Amino acid sequence: MLDFETTVRARHSVRQFLPTPMTNAQIREVAEDARRSPSSTNTQPWSVHIVSGETLARLKKRIMEKFEQGELCPDFAYDQSKFDGIYEPRWREFYKEMFAANGVTRDDSEGRKKITRRNAEFYDAPHAAFLFMPDVGDGNVNAASDMGMYSQTFLLSLTARGFGGIPMLFLAMFADVVREELGISPDFKLLHGIAFGYPDKDAPINQFRSKRASVDETVTFYE
Ligand SMILES: Cc1cc2nc3c(=O)[nH]c(=O)nc-3n(C[C@H](O)[C@H](O)[C@H](O)COP(=O)(O)O)c2cc1C
Known about the structure:
Elements: H1 4-10, H2 24-34, E1 47-52, H3 53-69, H4 87-101, H5 109-120, E2 127-134, H6 140-160, E3 164-168, H7 169-172, H8 175-182, E4 188-197, H9 215-218
Antiparallel strand pairs: 1-2, 2-4, 3-4
Bound molecules: flavin mononucleotide (FMN).
Flavin mononucleotide binds at residues 12-13, 94, 119, 166-170, 192, 210.
């Protein structure tokens, strides 16, 4: 098991997985770690659905079909253009560098589409966790923050144990499909998914690391 500092620094979004599945016991250990996450008034709003094997193959197929047809059905709206000001250069740079790491330039629309499509292939991950939460109206923002805590613990646990994962908003675009395929009540809303498994350490895309703003840019200290 990796120590804390190594784990935090080693974690990154894995965009190519090996086909080798994790064992049920290994997945359970990660879920054991993740359930220790903090949540507002200890509500633990996470309802997590972990999908592997034939069920994942079926789900992937249906998501790919919807993706190809351009039929999105998210529970929560997402508008990238709202992230303007200091945030816009960050996401623009991320896209540019991530596409470049895949050998695709800005004007290569076919290449970009192929990379976006990798999301629908779950980056070949043998497992995916779907993170649902109850629809609690005005409290949704608090619940979503709790869900983020859960996701990060899940991801760090994977890394510390020699596995890897990637949080995926892309998967939330197909909330209805996931609910239908897994028989989940419409009372639960899909925030995001996490594809996970063994990282393919030799894959060029897994050498890519996105940048971070400095502590001085993001933290204000008072005395
Ligand atoms: C909630 C959330 C959703 C994300 N959705 C996607 C996604 O759908 N596809 C993808 O390739 N990366 C996705 N990412 C990964 C981010 O691009 C990545 O976390 C960010 O660039 C920082 O890089 P790192 O995770 O490698 O440190 C998502 C990250 C988060 C936290």
